Amino acid sequence: MRYTAASLTSGGPPSAGALAETWSWSGGHWSKLAPTRSPPPRTSAGMTFDEAHQRIVLFGGQAATQQSPGQGLLAMGDTWSWDGRTWTQERPAHSPAPIVGPLLAYDPVIGKVVALVDVGGAATQTWTWNGSDWEQLHPANQPSPGRFSQGLTFDGARKLVVLYGGENCTAPYQCTEDPDAWTFDGTTWSDHHARSGDPLGRTSAAIAYDAQTQEVVVFGGSQLYTFLGDTWSWDGSRWSAAATSGPSPRTGSLMVVDVADGSLLLWGGWWGTQSAALTYYDTWTWKDKQWTLLDPTTEPAPADDRGAMLTAGSGGPGLRPLCSQAPPPCMSLEGDPQLGLDAGYLVFDLNPPGQASICISYLLRTSPFGSFSLIGVYCGGRNGPMPRIGAQVTVHANGCANVRAFPLQGPAVACLPNGTAATIDDGPAGFAFGQSPTIWWHLKGRGWIAHELLLASNG
Predict the structure, then answer these.
(1) Of the candidates 108, 201, 251, 299, which lies 20 to 30 Å from 389 by C-alpha distance?
(2) SS3 of residue 123 by DSSP
């Protein structure tokens, strides 16, 4: 049985919603599975692979719906296992209390799953799972209570469970990010105090062990209201900055080992401000100390969105009737509608071609599950100036154009001179926050740029 990665719930901001979906990553693609039984929808569950029993173990999280009005979303305390075909609810005699955001990691030295849970901010507890029951341990030393949004992994070189990040909260909204790392040797926890030059304390960073370099790798997270996109490695005693480029700054990403080649796989995450938010669904790999984008956020639209996208995108200025409904001159949809971050596009072939051979309709979505509206149509030659995934583009600006760390409100990372060549590798990302609708594209190795500042190069 082969596991590379599995995702049950949607992480990130509450607006992302909670799901009860199971996905697998294999051969460079995500596949949605259809088990006969699944855990109830939730966010912020703990999940890891139990090597001893060849099952994925899931525990806890936050419920998707209120059990009664005004009660709020409750913490969950159920345990489930995945055998590669379906989910089974376990019925342990003992269990940690229901908890949002438990941390799970498999420790091959003791042959058990280790779980770290924070009990109401008053105490930190360490538990182990033996395949059928939970057991609470009582280490002489444990990470301080009131610590949330940390990351947990097993360091194969030093045979230790590693805890990093999180924030210590003494009261609601009175929290500080913790820069320390902790290790667990199967008996007790040890604090590795941060030193000058170590990474900033952060919450919700992605963490995993890189067997190739025999180091623990940490990516992203957030500190206060600053979203981070840095990558660090830890050799058991010192931290080192590991990369200068890679995924956009974000928090709440998931990172696991891809057993096919030993590389690290990073999926998703989110960024936001008081007025804007962006949820990522892209997939990256970390190998040979560098990041590579494997699967952009943009993908063929799900079947239940295609009809709505076609209706919104086929009635714009300069477009023809669909060839399925009228004789030439008409147009036909080329491939599938492409859906990005609250925005998408459709490519139409013109029959017969005239001065233009294709048209592209650009759509904006008002919310992750909202309706689509047309915000622009561009017609031209097949290799004309029309932004889309994979297009070779040039910057079209008076002077230079700002490229940002993330769309719309991200810090400017460069100002590209007019005529700068680049390749679009992700997008579009759409925004409509009390202003004119706008979409953004990601330029490979550079950052995000506004749609209107791009002209695709003639190939």
Answers:
(1) 251
(2) strand
Distance CA 69, CA 268 (A): 31
- Predicted local distance difference test score (pLDDT) of residue 403: 95
Distance of CA 106 to the CA centre of its chain: 22
Question: How many angstroms separate the CA atoms of 169 and 175, rounded?
Answer: 4
Q: Which two tokens stand for residue 348?
A: 């139409």
- Residue given tokens 């091959």 in the structure block: 108
42-43 vs 55-63, strand pairing mode: antiparallel
Q: How far is CA 201 from the centre of its chain?
A: 20
**Which is more confidently placed, 66 or 292?**
292
Give the C-alpha separation, 86 to 189, whole Å.
35
Are residues 379 and 421 in contact, defined by beta-carbon separation less than 8 angstroms? no
The helix (run of H) or strand (run of E) holding residue 310 is helix 303-313
- Is residue 12 very low, low, confident or very high in pLDDT (cuts 50, 70, 90)? very low
Strand bridging mode 338-339 / 112-119: unpaired
Nearest-angstrom CA–CA distance, 65 and 117: 22
DSSP string, 206-246: EEEEETTTTEEEEEEEEETTEEEEEEEEE-SS-EEEEESS-
Per-residue pLDDT at 135 exceeds 80: yes
How would you classify the pairing of strands 123-129 and 134-137? antiparallel
- List the chain domain ranges: 6-295, 300-456
Asked if residue 306 lies in contact with residue 337, where contact means CB atoms within 8 angstroms, the answer is yes
326 half-sphere exposure, CB direction, 13 A CA radius = 11
Q: Give the burial class of 348: count Cβ atoms within 10 A of its Cβ; 0-12 exposed, 13-18 middle, 19 or more buried.
A: buried
Query: What are the residues whose beta carbons fall under 8 Å from the beta carbon of 93, sequence distance 6 or more?
Result: 133
Cβ–Cβ under 8 Å, residues 271 and 282: no
Give SS3 for 451.
helix
d(CA 279, CA 459): 32
Class of domain 6-295: mainly beta
Q: 346 and 301 in contact (C-beta within 8 Å)?
A: no
Cα-based distances in Å from 211 to 23, 49, 262, 263, 456: 24, 16, 7, 8, 41
110-127 mean pLDDT? 89
- Given a contact cutoff of 8 angstroms between Cβ atoms, the answer to whether 154 and 210 are in contact is no
Q: Which two tokens stand for residue 453?
A: 């500042």
